[in-house]
Amino acid sequence: MDKKKTQLVEIVGEDAVVENPYLGAFCSLDHTLIPPLRSHLLVRPRNVDDVQHIVLWANETQTPLVPVSSGPPHFRGDTLPTAPEAVIVDLSRMNRVLRVDRRNRLVLIEPGVTYGQLQSELQKYGLRVIMPLLPRQNKSVLAALLEREPPISPRYHWNMLEPLRSLEIVWGNGDKLYSGSGIYRGETDEDWLEGRVPVWGPGPGQLDYYRLLSASQGTLGIATWASVKCEVLPQVRKLFLVPAARLEDLLDFTYKLLRFRFGDELFIVNNTALAMILARRPEGVPTLRDILPAWAVVVGVTGGEFLPAERVQAQESDIRDIAQEFGLSLTPAVPGCRGGDLLKILLEPSAEPYWKIRYKGGMQEIFFLTPLERTPGFVATMLAAANDHQYPAPDVGIYL
């Protein structure tokens, strides 16, 4: 290990190599009972050249690499070094927002850029990026996109990798590739003036290389740069709830909203998950849960630069008519809470503590894709499993 450390220091410098790092900051919470693993190194590259040299070195020395770009806590085990003498490649130092282009609604980022950092930067240009439901402040935007974290804005979610565009990839053998139109890095003013802009994801050629890298948890290569599509920051926003006693009562209504692509934010949540989002302290979750509807569709409407108030009013009227068609009602506020508070919460990354662990201090998460019509059956199965294992079913938070 001393020899390996010396070799890594030659690549990235002495201050960027940590021996025997405290793994509690990197390992997922549901793996904390695993016995300590054998000695590890952590290395913090500064740029793509460092990453490429590290990957080539790993091939020569047969050393496993575990790429990490988000901050703690982690939950899914993909940051846990399970192979002996694995080296953690911490990409958090590569955290530059390289370019924001308002006209093309595009931002160029490195893997260490987090949602908290990016949203703040984009607001200066009147832009935003669609997010998952309340990501952690230190969650890597690129990691979330590559791992297909589901966003709460299906209106803009045209495929599984939306809004990801081009990538710079260092493959497992050390080769570097620009996917799509990523060869046009677009980092200089001249690039943009001459139209060399990385706006296209598929390719080069007939193969969508960026799809190979997605959902691979860093096992095929390391993405060191990406272009991401943005949306215009709305001038006017409103948020509504459509409550129901049963999940089944909301499905046809939600399907119709999806068909017309109504709602900038659109997801279904049960009262436990909504209480965890709204509560500031753990003891507030049961109290809020008791006054919230069992299930609710959360739907947001927005107006852009042109006739924003009129657009919001028209969408609100149409959504209200659709709700009435299915025997539902559109309410602008959460009982016991101001609707504006929920809107403000949903527009930013999660406050601390992270909302999914706010109630119990930890959690186990199961995420999967399924047709909306099949969700009541899966919910029933999950609640039955909770009962079988003496876990209180009302404490299971669910969102779709």
Give a description of the structure.
The chain is an alpha+beta fold and 400 residues long. The chain is built from twelve helices and 14 strands. It has helices spanning 2-12, 48-61, 115-123, 141-146, 189-193, 209-213, 248-260, 271-278, 284-291, 308-325, 339-346, 375-388; strands at residues 17-19, 41-43, 65-68, 87-90, 97-101, 106-109, 127-128, 164-171, 176-178, 221-229, 231-232, 236-244, 265-270, 295-303. A hairpin with a 4-residue loop joins strand 8 (164-171) and strand 9 (176-178). The mean pLDDT is 87.
The count of strands amounts to 14
Distance, first to last CA: 46 Å
Helix segment tally: 12
Provide the β-strand percentage band: 15-25%
Helical content stands at 25-40%
**Mean of residue pLDDT values:** 87
What is the topology, as strand order, of the major beta sheet? Answer: 5-6-10-8-9
CATH level-1 class of the largest domain: Alpha Beta
Shape: globular
Give a quick precis of the structure.
This protein has helices spanning 2-12, 48-61, 115-123, 141-146, 189-193, 209-213, 248-260, 271-278, 284-291, 308-325, 339-346, 375-388; strands spanning 17-19, 41-43, 65-68, 87-90, 97-101, 106-109, 127-128, 164-171, 176-178, 221-229, 231-232, 236-244, 265-270, 295-303.
